[in-house]
Design brief:
Helices cover 36% and strands 16% of the residues. Helix 3 packs across helix 4 and helix 6 packs across helix 7. The relative contact order is 0.15. It has one domain: Alpha/Beta hydrolase fold, catalytic domain (Rossmann fold). The longest helix has 17 residues. The protein has 11 helices and 8 strands. By secondary structure, it is of the alpha/beta class.
Length: 332
């Protein structure tokens, strides 16, 4: 009963650090006016012959249990949206590391960068090496699930456990939709507004039920569209969309040997390129109620937790239902 009460208190907690983002306002490419829920550090390094800064949070628990968890964000987000998850895990004794990938959040938005999941995994590993962290459990949501998959394959000895929360890339989108060039992606990104983002999130994340607690995460994304820096953001978004579409990980699940948990909101229908696919193919894309089960069969020994009636964002939409299986997995 005490655990249930504690879970509810975490779920109902109001974000203080991101309170300002309950109001839509212009945001520059570095989110310089946004305070993250925990102190932000930067790794400065050279990649692809250019200087870059990668933002990350490193949250130490008051009573360490000696274990580390790496949280990897999705494409339409940054590390800040893990706030409640961080609070809960650190209370349980875990050290939590939360990067903003290059091209996202407070990290550098390069004009020219060859995005790949291998490169992002290597960048992330550089942070962990700087912090002298020898191993960690890795949790990835959405695009972060694709990255977490590649990370686990590149660094199997480092990755103690793998958790995939509604990861995209559970199917090869190229088999359904025609390729769209980066230039075309860019033109599409430039058309985004707060309304297009909200409508998309209502459709895939929250089942047309909008709550005030969703507003900060929408505004962090939509605020960019109001700033003169938005073309830089849109260009990087176009590059990362191309990465997702052209670099499927579905064929590599069978090689994962790391203990793996899949947390799948079965209402989710997210699929890259669905709007470009033939109408008769669109209903076949992004069927997470089927894809979760198929993926479990591909990853030897993996465990699947299905969250019925939940969309693409379980750790925001239904935090209690998300955190319970996560905690069971990472503590045992």
């Amino acid at each position: 009963m005490k655990k249930v009460i504690f879970l509810l208190s975490i779920f109902m907690a109001t974000s203080i650090a991101l309170k300002a983002q309950t109001k839509l306002e212009p945001l520059d490419k570095d989110l310089s006016t946004v305070n993250y829920p925990y102190e932000v550090h930067f790794l400065e390094f050279i990649s692809q012959n250019q200087p870059l800064k990668m933002a990350y949070m490193d949250i130490q628990p008051e009573k360490p249990n000696g274990r580390n968890i790496l949280l990897l964000h999705g494409k339409n987000f940054n590390g800040a949206y893990w706030e409640r998850t961080i609070k809960f895990l650190t209370t349980e004794g875990f050290r939590v590391i939360v990067p903003d990938q290059i091209g996202f959040g407070k990290s550098t938005k390069p004009q020219s960068y060859q995005y790949s999941f291998n490169q992002l995994a290597e960048n992330t590993k550089s942070i962990l090496d700087k912090l002298q962290i020898k191993d960690a459990m890795v949790l990835g949501h959405s695009m972060g699930g694709m990255l977490a998959t590649r990370f686990a394959l590149m660094y199997p000895d480092f990755t103690k456990k793998l958790i995939l929360e509604n990861p995209i890339g559970l199917e090869d989108y190229k088999l359904f939709a025609p390729y769209q060039s980066i230039d075309e992606n860019y033109k599409a990104e430039l058309k985004n507004t707060v309304d297009t983002y909200r409508n998309y999130q209502l459709r895939f994340y929250y089942d047309n039920k909008w709550k005030a607690e969703y507003e900060p995460w929408l505004n962090l994304l939509a605020g960019w569209t109001l700033h003169a820096d938005y073309p830089v953001i849109a260009w990087n978004a176009a590059l990362t969309t191309d990465m997702i579409f052209t670099q499927p990980v579905v064929y590599e699940f069978k090689y994962i040997k790391t203990p793996t948990l899949l947390i799948i909101g079965t209402r989710d229908r997210t699929a890259i390129g669905k709007d470009r696919a033939k109408k008769e193919l669109q209903p076949m894309m992004g069927l997470y109620n089927e894809l979760g089960r198929k993926t479990q069969k591909l990853i030897s020994g993996s465990k699947l937790v299905e969250l019925d009636g939940v969309g693409h964002l379980p750790h925001i939409e239904v935090f209690n239902r998300f955190i319970t299986p996560l905690l069971d997995f990472v503590k045992n």
